[in-house]
Write a structure and sequence with these properties.
Length: about 240
């Protein structure tokens, strides 16, 4: 049987597929990582069985400074029309929202940091990807922007107690998550260094934050490996379909 091929859009070398990439590969997926920040062109979706759009430090509206964001949004619309399994993480989730007519803005509550509980909605319980995950669990969040208005046809799957969007189904085979299922402490270290000045000014104890995330490693693996495995299953179902 041909292994499913996942197109991965990486926006910065400090934001790799990391654990999600490892879990997808272990599930039999082949990853084709596109790095447009190094000059790679965003490829057409023909020949791919799934699309994974990663996070990054830029904003979902920063097309002028990061000109590949426009083509990525175009691919999102194509993927939706083709029912291509698609998952966006953090920025990837926000790019999907904007591409489909939603709104992304600075979080009025400020930056989300660290281990945050996931507030599943009733709709998540019957979702093709999220249903197996809808028990109590935490995820790592590290973001300034959030989706503040969903595009038409999207379904809210999880939100914080302050109504900050955490997970969305954008179409029959398209999802976004604001949290970072892919990260471990080594991935987070350069993010922490980049935010060190603002965190010191706000009194954020980065050492404690990273220590807590490191101590929760087994919990986080158990919580989010199933997301990658479920996405791999959807990609495998797409193998052999007409392109």
């Amino acid at each position: 049987m041909t292994s499913p091929t996942v197109l991965v859009i990486e926006h910065e070398d400090k934001c790799p597929p990391a654990l999600v990439g490892d879990w997808l590969a272990a599930a039999g997926c082949t990853l084709d990582v596109c790095r447009p920040y190094t000059g790679d062109e965003v490829p057409a979706l023909d020949g791919y069985d799934a699309l994974l759009i990663l996070g990054g430090p830029m904003g979902a509206h920063d097309d002028e400074a990061h000109p590949w964001l426009g083509p990525v949004k175009h691919r999102v619309r194509e993927a939706l029309a083709a029912h291509l399994p698609t998952l966006g993480i953090c920025l990837g989730h926000q790019l999907i929202a904007v591409a489909l007519g939603g709104t992304v803005e600075k979080n009025r509550h400020g930056q989300q940091l660290g281990l945050i509980g996931v507030g599943w909605t009733d709709a998540a319980g019957t979702d093709a990807l999220m249903a197996p995950l809808t028990t109590r669990r935490r995820g790592v969040q590290w973001n300034d922007d959030v989706v503040t208005a969903l595009p038409d046809g999207a379904t809210l799957l999880a939100a914080t107690g302050r109504d900050e969007v955490q997970a969305v189904r954008y179409g029959p085979r398209m999802w976004g998550v604001q949290l970072h299922p892919e990260v471990d402490v080594p991935v987070l270290l350069p993010w922490a260094e980049s935010d060190r000045g603002s965190h010191e000014a706000r009194g954020v104890d980065q050492d404690a934050l990273l220590r807590d995330i490191g101590a929760a490693r087994a919990e986080l693996d158990d919580a989010w490996r199933p997301l990658a495995l479920g996405f791999a299953e959807l990609a495998a179902e797409h193998v052999g379909r007409p392109r």
